[in-house]
Amino acid sequence: MDVAQEMEDILEELAAVQKAINKLKTASVSGTQLRNRIRAVQRKWLPVCGNLEAGNLIDAGHLQEVSNAWSSILKLTKNASPKAQYRPLLKLIIAKTESELLNKYIKASAIQTIGDPLRKLVQPISDQDLLRYLDEAIRAAEANCIKASVVLAWCAVAFKIHQTLARLTMPVLTSEMKKMKEDKGLMFRGFTKEYAFNTEPDIQEAADAHLVLLCRFLAYLDDTQYKGLRNALDLRNGCGHPTGYEPDPVKLQAYFSDITQLVLLNPKFA
Amino acid sequence: MLEKLKSDFDTILELVKKAPADLQETAFRMILESWFLSNAPQTQKSQNSEAPPPLAPSTPDAVKPFLTANAVTTQVLGRVFQPVGPGAQLLASDLPGSGKAAKLVNLSLLLCVKQALETGSFNCTLKDLRQMAVHYDCYDSPNFSKTLKGNKSFYSPRDKGADLVLSGPGQKKAAELIKAISAGD
């Protein structure tokens, strides 16, 4: 059963019923044809409700609320009940089904299957330790912890960047940072911080944004790639703090695609 | 490089003449573009000369006829999808179209092209379309089926709930859309 399709059909039918009730010139819904039509939609709702209950993908409270409204509307159809009693119930069922059930169901089903495309993206990575680490990020996503997944995956990116920069040796790295500070080009003129790297852990103390900029300065990334990686870092920063921002699975997939392409599988960071 | 272009120019013109008259200008541009890509000298922008070149996107063969027939260059495609090949992601942060219905149809066309870059076939599942539509805020659940039905000429005939497969007009419309997004319309 395609639950999303069924819910769409129910919503379509309910919108038509709502229109038909509004058009009625009588104060009550007395015609058996219209009442039978409502009962038929309710019968369609039952298997969908069962499926949603069993799937455990959406909030049980919202499901109960919609089910209760359906029970009330079913009672109304037994007699010629006033239109005014139908209206709020239909409005509630349509609004809740759309926003709390259907939209949430679509997002939750995307979460359920997010692991496959993400694993496919990181599969070509040959470093087994890195792969295991990324798998943890993917498992976080599968558990609907998208923000945690974003932050964890960025740690893998930061690790690769640190590793690549450390290979330059500390004196070279310090000197390149100095050169970047002196560069008055459009992209680098805003960078004014002084860094002195003595040991590898010093790199970890540097801001990720500055290290990413240095990767652009060293031409490990071109302008477009730099922009893409900065966007990924912005997403990581948005997820690293308790804010109201909620990235969805589509955003997460794009993020994984970007970080694998730009750093994790980029030969310049090998 | 100029010498090599001079020697190859006649061959390029011969190839262009084989294309229909109204497509010759486009064919000339595409062939020339491809010639420059394969003959341009390797310039090293980096101070680190040991760094390998960036990853080159590879467009699947199955998509090439679509690109040629609709005069869509790899550069144009690259402004809408990245990478231009397997793993392609839609770059647009907003979809063209006024209203949810128009956006949904445009999204479906783009997703079919995205899938073609992945597997070579211009199709898209309704599940993927719904997920992306929620992401792009153009999911209008009561009218989802109605909107697709209203634009059925873009898709091959299908049963209810079946995947969307782009028809000829659908591919043409998708190409126009890609060019419009790329041009920043």
List the helices and strands and how they pair.
The complex is a heterodimer of chains A (270) and B (185).
Chain A lengths: L2 H21 L4 E2 L2 H24 L4 H17 L4 E2 H30 L2 H8 L5 H15 L3 H21 L3 H13 L17 H6 L2 H10 L5 H17 L9 H16 L6
Antiparallel strand pairs in A: 1-2
Chain B lengths: L1 H16 L6 H16 L24 H6 L4 H5 L2 E2 L6 E2 L9 H20 L3 E2 L1 H10 L8 H7 L13 E2 L2 H15 L3
Antiparallel strand pairs in B: 1-2, 3-4
Helix pairs in contact in B: 1-2, 5-6, 5-8
Structure write-up:
The complex is a heterodimer of chains A (270) and B (185). Chain A is mostly helical and 270 residues long. Chain A is built from twelve helices and two strands. Chain A folds into two domains: 110 residues; 155 residues, no CATH class. The radius of gyration of chain A is 27 Å and the shape is elongated. In chain B, helix 1 packs antiparallel against helix 2 and helix 5 crosses helix 8. Chain B contains eight helices and four strands. About 8% of the residues of chain B have low confidence. Chain B has 185 residues and is mainly α. In chain B, the strands form two sheets. In chain B, strands 1-2 form a two-stranded antiparallel sheet. Chain B has two domains: 38 residues, no CATH class; 122 residues, no CATH class. Classes of the chains: A mainly alpha (270), B mainly alpha (185). Chains A and B meet through helix 1, helix 4 and helix 12 of A and strand 2, helix 6 and helix 7 of B.
Describe the structure concisely:
The complex is a heterodimer of chains A (270) and B (185). Chain A is an all-alpha fold and 270 residues long.
Search tags:
heterodimer; A: 270 residues; mainly alpha; 2 domains; 2 strands; B: 185 residues; two-stranded antiparallel sheet; 51% helix
